[in-house]
Amino acid sequence: MTPHAPHAPHVDPAAGAAVKAADRAHVFHSWSAQGLIDPLAVAGAEGAYFWDYDGNRYLDFTSGLVYTNIGYQHPTVVAAIQEQAGKLATFAPAFAIEARSEAARLIAERTPGDLDKIFFTNGGAEAVENAVRMARLHTGRTKVLSAYRSYHGATSTAINLTGDPRRWPSDNGSAGVVRFWAPFLYRSPFHAGTEAEECARALQHLEDTLAFEGAATIAAIILETIPGTAGIMTPPPGYLAGVREICDRYGIVFILDEVMAGFGRTGKWFAADHFDVVPDLMTFAKGVNSGYVPLGGVAISAEIAATFETRAYPGGLTYSGHPLACAAAVATIHVMEDEKVIENAAHIGETVLGPGLRELAERHPSVGEVRGLGAFWALDLVRDKETREPLVPYNAAGEANAPMAAFGTAAKKNGLWPFINMNRTHAVPACNITEAEAKEGLAALDAALSVADEYTV
User: What does the pLDDT look like over 287-342, one tens digit per residue?
Assistant: First the structure.
């Protein structure tokens, strides 16, 4: 799917050193202890690869932060941004402009059901913030339920909805957030033995949570359709439909977070399409324009949009629907259609990544489970396949995280840039990755997993 092989890296260590020095002197990095990091100085990127100033090239199995769904530097999208910059580089959000209108139309055509109104944001966290605000105003209720093993963003409400340790230092900003356990059979909190049991028990747990919290006080339930950073746990058949039914029964707004899973990542336009479920609100970002210019948004149902037909919605952003970002989205959506990127993600998942990762699991004692679909996969690494003890403890750091650090170092030495979170590595390459590139990544993973195997019992 990549138009041509990436250019050979230009070697210039002095330039790389200058970039690194300026970064270390002035850039404050997210999610990091500033004195303990050593960011790679990147000289360029193309397709599924990037490279440094020393000539080292890496196959990117992270897609940036799981957003370069069409790879780096796609010429069609780059040209669209350039053209828009020459025509109308920026304009305030209160006006109707071609790029914004067309982006909204194309997105609405692809969202499920009647999610036909689009509120644009600068990214996924702001999309979640506004979706929750809409739900609270629409229902007149305050509480929102979110799942453990989730990530929804780093702004005030979004971080409080998040169900992983990144929430802990900031868990004081949003009243009325209640967490529950979503299904995850491999590490079931419900002691289930089958997907059917896991689904039924997870839905009963949600019903019980509503009973004790007071269903009439709940504005919304928010779920990642398929949780991303938390582990790519595809929900069992019937679960999302069950949540939809519960929401309908109690007048609760159902929000699906598709920031990571949307726009082709799972082999369909949206992960919700796999489950035939239509939420009331759906958040998106990342793949909508492969991150070429920051863009996110909320797709809104007719019922919730009607709430604000004659009542002002109290929210907005200076750069909502920025022309450059919207032009990039228009071009990206056309690229996905014209080059069959979504079909490629489904094909690669079914014929290369899925079978290849499962074959690695058979040979490596460190791989406890493989799960995913499309270009969206996770390997759950363990010390013991029988007990399923994770290769490193939950939220491990420092010496406790040494096995995963060693795995990551080995992957990079083999030319693969891995996505690592806790005891997992994710295979989340560009959705237009070729079969040859995917197999190259599997070979590098094979070698790196041999290092992880050394820490098993």
Answer: 999 999 999 999 999 999 999 999 999 999 999 999 999 999 999 999 999 999 99
Give start and end residues of each alpha helix (H) in 339-415.
341-348, 354-363, 402-413
Question: Beta partners for 299?
Answer: 118, 282
- Listed residue (48, 292, 276, 294) closest to 284, CA to CA: 294
Interior angle at CA 308, CA 305 and CA 314, nearest 5: 120
CA distance 333 to 105: 11
Q: Dihedral (C-alpha) 183, 62, 71, 46: value to the nearest 10 degrees? A: 180
Q: How many CB atoms lie within 10 A of CB 204?
A: 12
Using CA atoms, how far apart are residues 26 and 287, in angstroms rounded to an integer?
Answer: 29
142-156 tens-digit pLDDT: 999 999 988 888 777
CA distance 104 to 128: 18
What's the first-to-final CA gap in the chain, in angstroms?
Answer: 41
pTM assigned to the model:
0.94
Residue 164 pLDDT > 60: yes
Full DSSP string of 215-238: GGGEEEEEEESS-TTTT--PPPTT
